[in-house]
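Mods, move this if it's the wrong board.
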Amino acid sequence: MAVTQKCQYALRALFELARRKGEGPIPAGGIADRQAIPKRFLEVILHQLRQGGFVDSQRGKEGGFYLARPAEDVTVGEVIRFMDGPISPVDCHRERPGHDCPLRGDCVFRGLWDEARLALERVYDTRTLRDLVEEKRRMELAAVEPPYEI
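Not the wrong board. Structure tokens:
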């Protein structure tokens, strides 16, 4: 299962809001510029994220978007499920109405797909927006520190 581009943009927008926590509401244009997201597409995504309870917004001259919940309470898995649906390594493994696999119940790969799904869920569900912000800070510090030489 590939995470859709729309979901990647949603994650990047949420990351940017988490990263800029304490700066007040962030305009959509500022998020779009910092995260290389097409602004018009981002506006649709932010509206969807608002409906999902991930972000809130403030209108007016000083308006913009901000996280509706603390960054440490929002997991990557939660966002992926909201934007893309159930996590699954293959499309045939997803439980979807109208999708009927001819091998259902007799598929030798089902156990493999279940194991892969659990591994994906474990990774996505244990990473929060706060974790990503902290990882970015570590990356920035590592890029600034001169190499140690003797």
